[in-house]
Amino acid sequence: SIRLSAWRGTDHNTAFDVARFELTAADPAILILRGINGGAAELRTAVDCARRVAHGLWFYGLKPTLLDEPDLSRPLLDRAQVVILPYNPGLTQNLAGTVADFNRRGGGVIGFYTIHPALEHSTGIRKAGHMQGVQTAPGGLAGFTMHPGQLRGAPVQVLQRSWNFNLLQPPGEEGAVLAEWQGVDGQRTGRAAMVR
Questions:
Q1: In sequence order, what are the beta bridge partners of 169?
Q2: What radius of gyration do the chain's Cα atoms show?
Q3: How many CB atoms lie within 10 A of CB 62?
Q4: Which of 27, 94, 138, 177 maximizes the CB count within 10 A of its CB?
Q5: Rounded distance, CA 22 to CA 20, Å?
């Protein structure tokens, strides 16, 4: 079934047109979990982040399954190889535990910006704090630079004007810093932008 819901601005009858419906087969091996549990203030950002990640993957020929947090189920996880968390500020303890169990069974987890404590435990990645970009580099952050050989196929540099970030520590000896934040002056900050 398909449900269409147009947001109304006032209490009047509304009409809208829809065109170019297209059915696209999704790959059950790649799940993108849209963060809808973060409340109204975070909803637009969470939905936009999930859409951007999905479009980026589609651009490279991958067809992820995009689903809302409450729709994640064990049967979906049994067919998945990776769960992507683009921005999930309201990830519940129960749902984070489900994703952590998936990770412990060998499933991959890719997360952006923040990490739930349950996933800290399963991945070994630790959140060590939070910083504003201007605390790290004069003028703020301009993006990050990859460490050579750490992530095959990754660009050398990614532009991303970020006003804040979480300090993440990779897990022990088996972990690694993949990329480092860079200031607007082009200098590396020594702060991890991507870890595994």
A1: 126
A2: 19
A3: 13
A4: 177
A5: 6
Between strands 27-34 and 82-85, the pairing is parallel
pLDDT(145) > 90? yes
pLDDT at residue 173, rounded to an integer: 85
Residue 149 and residue 153: Cα distance in Å, rounded? 9
DSSP string, 150-186: SSTT--SEEE---SEEEEEE--TTT--EEEEEEETTS
Q: Quote the tokens at residue 71.
A: 């729709």
Q: What SS3 state is found at 82?
A: strand
Task: Calculate what percentage of the chain has a pLDDT beyond 70.
Answer: 94
Indicate the average pLDDT of the chain.
Answer: 89
Q: Which two tokens stand for residue 92?
A: 């519940």
Taking the C-alpha atoms of residue 133 and residue 189, their distance in angstroms, rounded to an integer, is 10
The 3-state DSSP class for residue 68 equals strand
Distance CA 141, CA 22 (A): 39
Q: How many CB atoms lie within 10 A of CB 185?
A: 10
As given in the structure block, the two tokens for residue 56 are: 């980026």
When pLDDT is averaged across residues 118-130 and rounded to a whole number, the result is 93
Q: How far apart are CA 141 and CA 43, in angstroms?
A: 25
Taking the C-alpha atoms of residue 9 and residue 190, their distance in angstroms, rounded to an integer, is 47
